[in-house]
Amino acid sequence: MRIGLAAICAVCLCLLSVETLAAPVITTFDVPQAGTGTYEGTLSGGINKSGTISGDYLDASLVYHGFLRSSDGTISTFDAPGGGTFSYQGTLAGSINNAGTIAGYTVDANNADHGFVRAPDGTITPIDIHGAGTGPNQGTAAISINAGGTIAGFYIDARHAAHGFVRGPGGGITRFDAAPSGPNQGTLPASINAGGAVAGIYLDAGMVYHGFVRAANGAITMIDAPGAGTTKFQGTFATGINKSGTITGYYLDANSAYHGFVYDASGNITSFDAPSAGAGGQQGTLAGTINDAGKIAGYYVDAHKVDHGFVRAANGTITRFNVMGAGTIALTGTTGGGINNSGVISGTYVDNNHVSHGYVRMP
Predict the structure, then answer these.
(1) How far, rounded to the nearest angstrom, does the alpha carbon of residue 31 sit from its chain's CA centroid?
(2) Confidence band (pLDDT; 50, 70, 90) for 94?
(3) Computed from CA positions of residues 143, 146, 148, 154, in that sequence, does the dihedral angle turn out positive or negative?
C-alpha cells in the first residue's frame, strides 16, 4: 500500500485550486554506489533549511545504506551498526533536522528493526525501546526528528502491536498509545514539530486507519477526515505537522481512492485533490509533508497509476510537476518528499525500468 496512506463530489467542492505555470529548477542525482537494476537506486528523504538531504539507497544486492547530500551536491554514505546484509536489510535514514542530525533505523539479519540517531559528526547512537520485540517485523523505528533533537517513532512488540514513543535529546523515552492496540494494530507516529507535537496514524481492530495528533503535554486528539472510508485498510493518514500545528495527510474513501487534507490548529479539515488525479482505487492525491509557511509537498496517482509530484501553497494553489526521466507507465513517475521552509523539495522519481533516483526541486 502507498503510505513510507467524502464522496468525490464533496471533495471537489472543497477544491478551489488552480495550477500555476512556473517552471521550477529541478536537479536529479544518484548515490554513486546505488544499484541500477529493477527496484534498486536512490531514495531521497528529508531536507533541512540548508538544503542538506538525508535518505537511503538500495545497492545491487537490494541492501539499504544511508546517505547525505549537501546543497552543493556532495554525497556521503554511512551504515549504522547492526544492519543486515541481505535483501531489504541495512540502514534507512529518513529525517534530518537543521543541525544535520538524522533519525532512522536499521533492519538486522533477523529482519528486526533498531532505531538510531546520527549526530552531525557521524556518531551513531542506537535506540531500542524497552518492550520492543526482537523477531522479524518487530523492533524500534526512529521516524522524525525536530529542531531540538527530539525524536518521534514507534516500536512493535512481540505480539506485533505498534506503540509510539518520543525520545528527548538527552535520551529520555516517553511511550504512548493513541488508543488500545492488539496484534497487527496500533500507533505509528509520522512527524514531530518544533514544539514537540506529534502527528501520526492509528490502525484499529477493524484494520481501519485514523489520524492523530499528540500534544507536547500528552493529550491525544483523533483525526478522521470527512468522507474517509470505514472498511479494512481505508481511513485517514496524518503524515506531516508544522510549527503552528497544521497537519497534512491523506485519506482513502469508500472506493479506496486517495484525497489530500489539511487539518488546522482549530480542528478544521479541508480536503483537496490535485488536478488530473485519478478517482479509482489506489489512485488520487497523497499529501506528505508541510513546512511552516503551510506549503505541502506530495504526489498524485493518475488514472493510469502513474505518479506525479505537486506542491500546494497555503492559499490552496496547486502546482504539478514531473521530473525529466520519470517513468510514464504504471508504478513509475515522480513522488513528493520533504519540503523545507524555503520551499525546496527533495523527492524520488522512478524511471521506466523501475529504478529510483533522487531529485531536488527549487521553488
Answers:
(1) 20
(2) confident
(3) negative
In 122-256, DSSP assigns E strands to: 124-127, 139-145, 151-156, 162-167, 173-176, 186-192, 198-203, 209-214, 220-223, 235-241, 247-252
Report residue 205 as a C-alpha cell: 481492530
What distances in angstroms separate CA 7 from CA 88, 239, 255, 344, one per listed residue? 37, 21, 9, 33
The hierarchical CATH code for the domain 8-361 is 2.130.10.10
Instruction: Return the C-alpha cell found at 320.
Output: 504539478
Query: pTM for this one?
Result: 0.93
**Using an 8 Å Cβ cutoff, are 212 and 235 in contact?**
no
Q: Read off the C-alpha cell for 86.
A: 541481505
pLDDT of 212 > 50? The answer is yes
Q: Which three cell numbers stand for residue 304?
A: 493510469
Cβ neighbour number for residue 342 with a 10 Å cutoff: 15
Class of residue 104 by CB neighbours under 10 A (exposed 0-12, middle 13-18, buried 19+):
buried
Place of cell 529520555: 172
> Helix, strand or coil for residue 12?
helix
Query: Residues 170-207: pLDDT tens digits?
Result: 999 999 999 999 999 999 999 999 999 999 999 999 99
Flag whether pLDDT at 239 surpasses 90. yes
Cα–Cα distances in angstroms (integers) from residue 203 to residues 66, 83, 154, 288, in the given order: 29, 28, 13, 18
Place of cell 502527528: 199
Domain map (residue ranges) of the chain? 8-361
Exposure string (b/e) for 212-241, b if CB count within 10 Å is 16 or more? bbbeeeeebeebbbebbbeeeebbbbbbbb
- pLDDT for 327-361, tens place per residue? 999 999 999 889 999 999 999 999 999 999 999 99
Q: CB within 8 A of 21, min separation 6: which ones?
A: none
